[in-house]
Amino acid sequence: MKITDLILEVAEFPFPEDFHPAWAPGGSEKGIGVTIIKILTDEGITGIAAASTFGSEIPTFNSLKPHFIGKDPFAVEQHIQILRNARPHGGLPWPIEIALWDIIGKASHLPIYKLWGSYRDKIKAYASSGELRPPERRIEDVYRYYEEGFRAVKLRIHYPEMKEDLNLVTAVRKAIGDKMEIMVDANQAGILVSPGYNPTWSYSRAVMTARELEKLNVSWLEEPLNRYDFKGLARLTKEVDLPIAGGEANVGIRELKMLLDMDCYDILQPDATLSEGLFQLRMLAGIAHVDGKRFIPHTWGNGLGLVANLHLAASIPNCTHLEYPYDPPSFTKEAYFGMLKKPLEVDGEGYIHVPQGPGLGVELDEEAIARYKK
Questions:
Q1: Residue 361 placed within a domain
Q2: What residue ranges of the chain have pLDDT lower than 50?
């Protein structure tokens, strides 16, 4: 089998109303921007993947195309070297590897996770909220999540004062009791350019917040410090009992391994569309497992990216949850999974099931992609 072409399509799947992410105070987003990748072969098998659209994807993927035409899609360990060498020159090329594994799974007539060991076929999903909302409204959201089957939720805390952050989590915990797990994301790994005030945590605020969240039976605290404050993260992880999570925007296998080597996190959260190649992350998960750490992928980019990370999560023993971005009425399943014929849903016990078709096991909605093509 040989690769014959690499095709790119850019689309934006609109939100019903503007989405206001907690990590960019005062900012808004109108939809999910996606670069769809299709790798064609001479045997009629097409591999698919999707990258978040930041602006540099098309030039990056076009520059890589000549390095893949005529090559064997099964030679992933050769191809990843090309992607890794291209990364410093701009763009996030990792979805190309996802498309290669989709080809391999389709050619082998197996889902990717079964090629890799099939540790589980379902995993507990947590509804990952994105906006910073007042306690009374967030309580309503959490009740809705519960009614829809979720048994875990991630709250954003990004208020100017620590007291406001803790008031939100306290109110939700009091309202929902022990019926749902609560995770908390501080979004302190990197401060984005935005029109509103973006609070930056000190080390002492991170420590005090973690200790108070532990009293509220929170499952983990995510991104409490800058992603490159390796010493501060390692000190915090050692000093508090609450699990500390992060790593979604750290890029490259060496940088991610450094987070493990320095004990920066109890839970590592890279993303196969942002951080490093899909199978490379599986190898990293093996190292984390030996070190007694959990590996729970970030999935915020798009629905097809979630599917790729789900196959990774299902193939390893040290993943306990999967992120499911969902914050209606703005951030909806219809927009997030807009490139797919069918969104993935959670069952009545809060689990998301791995698609059982070959490769990624999902189909693109070509009509929707054409409708929202840019």
A1: no
A2: none
